[in-house]
Amino acid sequence: MALVSSLTPVFVAVLCVVIAFVLRSFQKTKTTSKPDSKSTREARPWVDEDLKDDTEISSKDNEDDEWVDGGEEDLPHVPYTPTRYPPEEMLERSQQFYSLLNQRRSVRFISPEPVPRSVIDNVIHAAGTAPSGAHTEPWTFVVVAEPETKHKIRLIVEEEEEINYRQRMGDKWVKDLERLRTNWVKEYLDEAPYLILIFKQAYGILPDGKKKTHYYNEISVSISCGLLLAGLHNAGLVTVTSTPLNCGPQLRLLLRRPANEKLLMLLPVGYAAANATVPDLKRKPLDDIVVHI
Amino acid sequence: MALVSSLTPVFVAVLCVVIAFVLRSFQKTKTTSKPDSKSTREARPWVDEDLKDDTEISSKDNEDDEWVDGGEEDLPHVPYTPTRYPPEEMLERSQQFYSLLNQRRSVRFISPEPVPRSVIDNVIHAAGTAPSGAHTEPWTFVVVAEPETKHKIRLIVEEEEEINYRQRMGDKWVKDLERLRTNWVKEYLDEAPYLILIFKQAYGILPDGKKKTHYYNEISVSISCGLLLAGLHNAGLVTVTSTPLNCGPQLRLLLRRPANEKLLMLLPVGYAAANATVPDLKRKPLDDIVVHI
């Protein structure tokens, strides 16, 4: 008994080391096997679901990793002489451009009146002139005019948005939203004559079936969306910029887009409703956004 | 002694529970405090350096997490009646907009001729009308005209770019680049009358000093850059879209921008040089980028 008692500290020490080792191994396995999906799940809950579509893609491929200056392919060069304007005309054109775009607002009240499809096509064609990483042009614009599909989109968006509000987001997000009038009823998804869903192509498929990374696809497609928004406004149409949380995979399947495409934005498009209103917000003055050196 | 011995199992059990608790807490702290920086380091080598600027910011703040439909603050609503055009005029305007933008190209040969600063200001003012997540307007446009600062920027960009080419990037990246004429000599950074460096504000600072997450700041600023590119082209100016790898922190410090700002793009701006050439590349036809449903 005395022997057992004197051995107790040794036994305790050995047991502790064994337990510590087991616990550490367990934790290590847990952290090294899934660090990205874990952190992704915490940081971007809805992206995680989208990743199920292409588990072969490494996070390196899936992230926007490298940007190559736009449009410099290994092609013969040709002279380029863009239109030049005298200084006064430049000034006037730049002033008019600002005045035009400064009238643009995000509008949730969209008239169901029909809009010529060729106008939408022209604006998308213009959006497709955006620069892109290594000239990959990694965008697909899905234009939905069919009422039934629009309604299915609405149901998907509203359902997921309600879940987001109620469950997924932290206090901070909900608190930020409280300041906003946003709610998860999106009538405009039925009413707008067109819904434009903009997909970014995370990678391309080469003729041999291999995947080709699209560097900086999200930035490229966002730039393209900038041109799209300018073009819609220039044509007298309105929209509201939205990125429906968590809906990417469902909407991708509904619209039968391939697995390399991820939803970036959803824009309801049409004329402003006759009684359209917008929040009375202001934009920052120029001096708050520009710094001269 | 017998009492002590009979208590040994209890003692061991208690000790084990305490050790397990301590170890678990330790691991938990470790995994919750830094899992993202680990995965970020693996997935995006150069972003990691940038994160050194603001280690207090969690990755949740730093990622583009949530987007709120643009411009819907908790403000009184006012009527909004944007200009409407008859269908023929809409069609013509949309066609002209496409024709204008389709003439834009990324140009590396920029004339050193001076350009009126007010033109640049107008174009930036227009870019600042972009929608942004929760109307945060998370952009800063730094316009560099001073030759010495331009040259410092060139040195930073060229040095980092050479390192990227030679060391950091995998075989795939280098192979992709071989197809491109890009190299790390960037004369245009000295020659262009202006360099516009566009920073995204990852978060804002509230009056009480607390940080306010800027949801979807990267997408918002990229949209704004789309408007900027359209505005520059509309004024008869050229640029080439670039995102200098790894240079963000150095350029931020050089330009004395605060820690919440991250470099997104660097645009050299001016007239096209008289002998400017561009690669003879084509854009995808409309049918390749649009799907109608």
Description:
The structure is a homodimer of 293-residue chains. Chain A is of the alpha+beta class. Chain A has a domain at 61-66 and 106-276: 3-Layer(aba) Sandwich (NADH Oxidase), CATH 3.40.109. In chain A, 48% of the residues lie in helices and 13% in strands. Chain A has 12 helices and 8 strands. Chain A has helices spanning 2-33, 35-43, 45-51, 59-62, 87-102, 117-127, 147-168, 171-178, 188-191, 217-234, 248-254, 286-289, and strands at 77-79, 139-144, 194-201, 203-205, 211-213, 261-269, 277-279, 290-292. Chain A has a 3-stranded antiparallel beta sheet, with helices on both faces. In chain A, strands 4-5 form a two-stranded antiparallel sheet. In chain A, a hairpin with a 5-residue loop joins strand 4 and strand 5 (211-213). In chain A, helix 6 (117-127) packs across helix 10 (217-234). Chain A is globular, with a radius of gyration of 26 Å. Chain A starts with a helix and ends with a strand. At the A-B interface, helix 1, helix 2, strand 1, helix 5 and helix 6 of A face helix 1, helix 2, strand 1, helix 5 and helix 6 of B. Chains A, B: Residues 102-271 form the Nitroreductase domain. Chains A, B: It catalyses: bromide + L-tyrosine + NADP(+) = 3-bromo-L-tyrosine + NADPH; 3-iodo-L-tyrosine + iodide + NADP(+) = 3,5-diiodo-L-tyrosine + NADPH + H(+); iodide + L-tyrosine + NADP(+) = 3-iodo-L-tyrosine + NADPH; L-tyrosine + chloride + NADP(+) = 3-chloro-L-tyrosine + NADPH. Chains A, B: GO terms for molecular function: iodotyrosine deiodinase activity. Chains A, B: Residues 33-61 have a biased composition (Basic and acidic residues).
